Amino acid sequence: MKLRALGPTDTKIPAVGQGTMGIGGYFTRDDSSDAEFIRLLKLGFDLGLRLIDTAEGYGGGHSEEIVGKAVHGIREKVFIATKCSSEHSAYDLVIRSAEASLRRLKTDWIDLYQTHWPDPRVPIEETMRAMEELVEAGKIRYIGLSNCSVAEARRAQDCLSHVPLVALQHEYSVFERTVETQLLPWCSEHQVTLLAYSPLSRGKILDGQRKNLLDVLGRKYDLSGAQLFLNWLLENPSVVVIPKASNELHLRENAAVLDRTIDPADHRKISELFQPRIVSIPTDEIEVLEENGRQIYKTLQEAIENRFNIVPGPLDLSEQVASGEILKPIKVRVNSLPFKKPPYQLVEGRVRYWAWVIAYKGGVPIPAIVENPEE
Ligand code: NAP
Fold first, then answer.
1. Which listed residue (58, 142, 344, 353) is catalytic?
2. How many domains does the chain have?
3. Residues of 295-333 as b/e, b for ≥16 C-beta within 10 angstroms?
4. Distance CA 49, CA 46 (A)
5. Is 243 in the pocket of ligand 1 (CB under 6 A)?
6. Does any ligand 1 atom lie closer than 6 A to the CB of residue 21?
7. Residue 356 lies in a domain
């Protein structure tokens, strides 16, 4: 079974874990399927997926409660990673969040405690000081960051005086490869594990030539498209994937990846054919729509006022954008409505879109991945 060292430590974790976003609800609590989720998480543990990623923000904390029930009786055998929400980055809020997570998880320790998103208003040194104290108190074992830039990771690493930064969690899939330019090389160089989130691009559907390649390779290896994608990501030894499955067949497929590999030549074919097409699009050619029912700023003024109190908000993030740091391109789709005006619709990246508009006063096209490019 593929096991990977966690950062520079002696701790080994499975190369495939279980994500939990949506398990117990997305943004608010949903306890309608608890029994089934607990059954699936336990089955995942039996199949070797003994790394679980959750967050205080998932399902308003209910995801952690479900994880707590699933690990009951086998706590020592499961590696639990959870996250502190960005609006809780100040010293005392980090401590309070960790304690609340421990209560919901019904455990005495968290294996990996991660910041969910950096909060530009709170110095990372302050957040790391709280995290280090949690390590000293035995409440968390290891420290990680999510959705950070290389500069932020470096700063966090520099201010940790006696524990290492072991993991960065970022979006990474065959369709979203921004980490390959800076973050992944940095992780490899500094012995930091990259936890690849949304490794299946949230279950994206494929068509055309790309699907043909997956069919051919699928027959050759007896692997599904999702299994090929996960294998592709695991080629780099610094990477660990955390797909979410709420369907037993998917879960079994993901677990089977622990025992399979694909040839380097086929790895290269997937790399080439699935190369994401990043284009620069004038910001006024993109219609800003609701994102999975989440509140969204419809105008520049709403974004500047941050009336939904998102952390980091568009104005906070615009400073980072203006300094030349961009975490990843936004995702858009070609407008299929009659008259196609504006030509694109925003799929993902509502805060990043407005941060870009603010940073460049609407005058510079924004890097975007077009999810349904017109052939
Ligand atoms: P994902 O794992 O890329 O995709 C999940 C989707 O893929 C679900 O619709 C799932 O369907 C489907 N799926 C799973 N296994 C499959 C298989 N073998 N074949 C076909 N479809 C399959 O997306 P994600 O949930 O966004 O990311 C995974 C985890 O990363 C999250 O759950 C969360 O723990 C973490 N995450 C972290 C952040 C962050 O900001 N740090 C952001 C996003 C995600 P079913 O559910 O029907 O099985």
1. 58
2. 2
3. ebbeeeebbbebeeebbbbbbbbbebbeeeebbbbbbbb
4. 7
5. yes
6. yes
7. yes
Return d(Cα 256, Cα 92) in angstroms, integer. 42
Distance 37 CA to ligand 1 centre (A): 14
For residue 31, being part of any structural domain is answered with yes
58 in active site: yes
Report phi then psi at 142, rounded to 5. Answer: -135, 160
CA 172 to centroid of ligand 1, rounded, Å: 11
Kindly report whether the global pTM for this prediction surpasses the value 0.90.
yes
Is the bond preceding 342 in cis, omega lying within 30 degrees of 0?
yes
Of 273, 302, 334, the residue that ends a domain is 273
Query: What's the pLDDT tens digit per position in 206-247?
Result: 667 788 999 999 999 999 999 999 999 999 999 999 999 999
What domain range includes position 145? Answer: 3-273
- Which domain-ending residue is among 249, 273, 297? 273
User: Quick check: is 344 in a domain?
Assistant: yes
Residue 298: CATH number of its domain: 3.90.1530
